[in-house]
Amino acid sequence: MDTGGKPPSPPLSGGKMPSARSHASGKVITVRVCPRSQKPRVVEDAGGCYKVYVSAAPEKGKANKQVVKILARHLGLRKTSLEIIRGQSSREKLIKIHE
């Protein structure tokens, strides 16, 4: 399998830190949220974006809170280590990782 000269990305499991990219405000990851899912989970897609499936509805910040909780648990971080810096009312979010 040809990966274009880049090593394949490891799967996101076991609390491993995702490959965050540099941004003016620090390390950030791109997240796509899928609300009203039956099973909350985190999945990395082929483009390096992370899909976070949450059971909460996207109303009054409930889904955002669950995104931060699930992603923090998955990465082995505290909830306060993650901050949504763009996309509070969108499915596409940019999340800053405070270390």
Automatic annotation (TrEMBL):
From the Swiss-Prot or TrEMBL record, give the protein name. Answer: UPF0235 protein CVT63_01830
What InterPro entries does the record point to?
A: DUF167 (IPR003746), YggU-like_sf (IPR036591)
NCBIfam families documented for this protein? DUF167 family protein (TIGR00251)
Which species is this record about?
A: Candidatus Anoxymicrobium japonicum
For region Disordered, the annotated ranges are: 1-26
Question: Which Pfam families does the entry link to?
Answer: DUF167
Please note every region of biased composition (Low complexity). Answer: 1-19
A GO cellular component entry from the record? cytoplasm
SUPFAM superfamilies hit by this protein: YggU-like
> What SMART domains does the annotation carry?
DUF167 (SM01152)
Assigned protein family:
Belongs to the UPF0235 family.
